[in-house]
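FYI - complex with iron/sulfur cluster, inputs then prediction.
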Amino acid sequence: MSKRLKSASVLNKFMADYYYELDEASKTKSKKIAWCTSVGPAELLRALGFLVYFPETHSAMIGASKTAADFIPNANAIGFSPDICSYLTSDIGACLAGVSPLEKAYKTIKSPPAPDILVFNTNQCRDVQDWFCWYGRKYNVPVIGINTYNCVTDVTDSHIPSIALQIKDLIKPLEAVAGVKLDFDFLKQTMLLSMKCSALWEEVLNSAATIPSPLSFFDSVTLMGAAVVGRGTDAANLCYQKLIKELHQKIKNNEGCVPDEKFRIYWDGMPVWGRLRSYSELFENLKACIVASTYCNSWIFKDFDIDKPFESMARVYVSLFITRSEEYKEKYIKDMAKFFKADGIIYHDAKTCPNNSNCRYGMPQRIEKDTGLPFITINGDLNDLRLVSDEQTKTKIEAFVEQLEDRKA
Ligand code: SF4
């Protein structure tokens, strides 16, 4: 786990500062707060002076605290199906219960910050729109957003104008709430910082291509917090510069995060937040390192262009892995498995997130046929631990690593 990396404490401090600043602004009304989906137009919001809060990180905290099942029934009781996104149901359920994991983590913070406006992008799924609309009704504040494409193979010029226009259309309602006019120079600066954050985060993740790998998926899912909530800020970039230094040193010392690393595995899909520690230990005992994942790489955005801010934002938001077709994803996973020198692939079929589960239309079988890389699918969920069978998962993973061992022999 990430505590093996000293710079994890720098990232933890970053997250603490981030939540304290939001909490202060929420209590004192000193700054406007915009809620944003994880790949929503954060750069635009920052450029308008908003503090930006991402509810998905709050949901991930609920998942990691293993309390999601306590709250999901509250959301079910008001009409949200148990089959939809458990980020949504656990977050709304926790709100209905008046409970937040922020209190345990940060003592003086009792709840997420109240929004002045909520801004979604459906590039990842429709659930985020419904999720934000519920809070919009609760707080009686505007909910605006971008509706985008999905199942895109090649992102072409024809995809861009309509999304760029939708982003431009956000400016007026945002200015009305922010009480300021958009400063284009500040927007460009924010985009530059975001690009830098993305490049640094990519460098962090790519260090795992080294044998032995200095970090694993179980480190990255916690280290990625700054890339998710802090892109567009200097503070996030400073954290990653420190982390990269440490990773370089580990590479120089030939120090892997899994002692005696023997197997390298690629992970598709979301983490099971409530099982980070136990899975990390399980793989470590098997001398297997989960070197990379589709999930953590989703916060690498390469297409920002400050001379075309809206068009390039549109391109970034439609190029996201989750919005792409099976054909694109298949090639991407094959390329990544090769780059990270993976011996096999694990697909997490997350029951309540079909959008992040890529094993439902024959992709694992096609990739195995083309590359010879063995795979397993584990059934589980991001937050709802009632959908996770620990024994079955353990048995499957142990058998998979045995299979990898046989292949090596
Ligand atoms: S992508 Fe999945 S986990 Fe994320 S908000 Fe949408 S349904 Fe939930």
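The first strand starts at residue 33 and ends at 36. Residues 56, 85, 87, 124-125, 127-128, 353, 355-356, 382 surround iron/sulfur cluster (CB under 6 Å).
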